[in-house]
Design brief:
single chain; 337 residues; alpha/beta; Aspartate Aminotransferase, domain 1; Aspartate Aminotransferase, domain 2; 2 domains; 3-stranded antiparallel beta sheet; 12 strands; 42% helix; binds pyridoxal-5'-phosphate
Length: 337
C-alpha cells in the first residue's frame, strides 16, 4: 500500500473530471476565445462575489500577479513571516514585483489589526518605504491550516481601508476555510480587493488557480499574467477540470477535515504531541527526528513531509481511501517514536 500524505497537491483527476476534460470545448484563450476558460472565470467570480476572474496556471503565479496588480516597484507589503509567499515562491515578490516585504512573526502565520498599524508607514519621511498592501493567507499552510474567520478579515480590512492599503488574500485553500468556519466563501472574499484560490489542491484538479476581484483590477492582472508567460492557449482542457472541481468536489473537503481531526485525536490520546492547531486538513506532528521518521514511514508505504528536524506534516485529501486512512492510523500507532 502506498499512502501519499505529503500534500493535497498530489490529488489526481477523478473519473468524472477526466470525462469533463475529454469533452471540454476549447479556443484560444489569449484571444479571449476559450469558452470553458471564460465560463470558469465567470463562475469563480460569482462564487466569490467578485466582478471578474482570471485563470492562471499556478497558485504561485496567482500571488505574483496579485502583487504586481496591487503595488508598484518600491512599495512595501505587510505579510506573515510564515506565509507561503515568503517561504516557497522563490522570492518572486522581491525579484519580480520589486516590493519590500515587512514580515510579521508568529507560528500561526496570521495577522491582526495591530500588526498592520505597528508596521504601517505612509512613506512621507524621506527614509521610509510606503506601505501600500497587506497580504493574508487563508487557510495558512505553515500555520497548521488555521483559518481567518469573517470577523478577523473584516477587522483587517477596516484598518486597510483607513490607511488606504490594498488587501490581498492567498486563498489557495479558501474553501477549506469556508467549511471550517461555516461561512459562505463570498463573505470571506468580500473584504479583500483581490483573492485567489487553487483548483489543484484539495479540489483535485490537475492545475490552475483563479484570481478574483473588480473588473478593473482583473483587466490589469490579465496583462501581468501575459508578462509572466501565463497566457495559455486551449486552456479549456484545464478549466473544465476546474469547473468540475467547483461543482462536484467542494463539499468533499469536509471529509479531509474530519480525518485530520480523527487522526490527531487518536494519536494525541496515545501521547503524541502536536505543535499547532489542526482545524482543517493539515496536521503538523512534533517528533524527535523528523527525517528519520519520514524514512521509516516511507519504508511502510506512507509518504509524509519533514518540514524541520522536529516536525512532520501530513495532509489529508480526497485521494485517500478509507482503507488507506485506517492503515495510516494503525501504522502511526505502532511506530516507535
Ligand atoms: C497557501 C499556498 N499558496 C500558494 C501556493 C502555490 O501554489 P502552486 O503550487 O500551484 O504554485 C500553495 C501551494 O501549496 C499554498 O499552499
Amino acid at each position: 500500500m502506498l499512502v501519499d500524505l505529503r500534500s493535497d497537491t498530489v490529488t489526481k483527476p477523478s473519473p468524472g473530471m477526466r470525462e469533463a476534460i475529454a469533452k471540454a470545448e476549447v479556443g484560444d484563450d489569449v484571444y479571449g476565445e476559450d469558452p470553458t476558460v471564460n465560463k470558469l472565470e465567470k463562475f469563480s467570480a460569482e462564487l466569490l462575489g467578485k466582478e471578474a476572474g482570471l485563470f492562471v496556471p499556478t497558485g504561485t503565479m496567482a500571488n505574483l500577479v496579485s502583487f504586481l496588480t496591487l503595488t508598484k516597484p518600491g512599495d512595501a507589503v505587510i505579510l506573515a513571516e510564515q506565509s507561503h509567499t515568503i517561504h516557497y515562491e522563490v522570492g518572486g515578490l522581491v525579484r519580480i514585483a520589486q516590493v519590500l516585504p515587512l514580515t510579521v512573526p508568529g507560528e500561526l502565520g496570521k495577522l491582526t489589526e495591530e500588526d498592520i498599524i505597528l508596521r504601517y508607514n505612509s512613506g512621507a519621511d524621506v527614509h521610509r518605504v510606503p506601505v501600500t498592501m497587506v497580504s493574508i493567507e487563508n487557510t495558512v499552510n505553515r500555520g497548521g491550516g488555521v483559518f481567518y474567520n469573517y470577523e478577523e478579515i473584516c477587522s483587517i480590512s477596516r484598518v486597510c481601508k483607513r490607511l488606504n492599503l490594498k488587501l490581498h488574500c492567498d486563498g489557495a485553500r479558501i474553501f477549506n476555510a469556508s467549511i471550517a468556519c461555516n461561512v459562505d466563501v463570498k463573505y470571506l472574499a468580500e473584504p479583500c480587493d483581490i483573492i485567489s484560490f487553487c483548483l489543484s489542491k484539495g479540489l483535485g484538479a490537475p492545475a490552475g488557480s483563479v484570481v478574483c476581484g473588480s473588473k478593473e483590477l482583473i483587466d490589469r492582472a490579465r496583462k501581468f499574467r501575459k508578462l509572466l508567460g501565463g497566457g495559455m492557449r486551449q486552456a479549456g482542457v484545464l478549466a473544465s477540470a476546474g469547473l468540475y472541481a467547483l461543482t462536484h468536489h467542494i463539499d468533499d473537503l469536509r471529509k479531509d477535515h474530519e480525518r485530520a481531526s480523527i487522526f490527531r485525536w487518536t494519536l494525541e490520546n496515545k501521547g503524541w504531541k502536536f505543535p499547532l492547531p489542526s482545524p482543517t486538513n493539515i496536521v503538523f506532528i512534533s517528533v524527535s527526528n523528523a527525517y528519520e521518521l519520514k524514512e521509516k514511514l516511507k519504508g511502510k508505504g506512507i509518504l509524509v513531509n519533514a518540514v524541520s528536524n522536529d516536525r512532520i506534516r501530513v495532509v489529508f485529501h480526497r485521494d485517500i481511501t478509507d482503507e488507506q486512512f485506517d492503515y495510516t492510523l494503525k501504522t502511526f500507532l505502532n511506530i516507535a517514536l
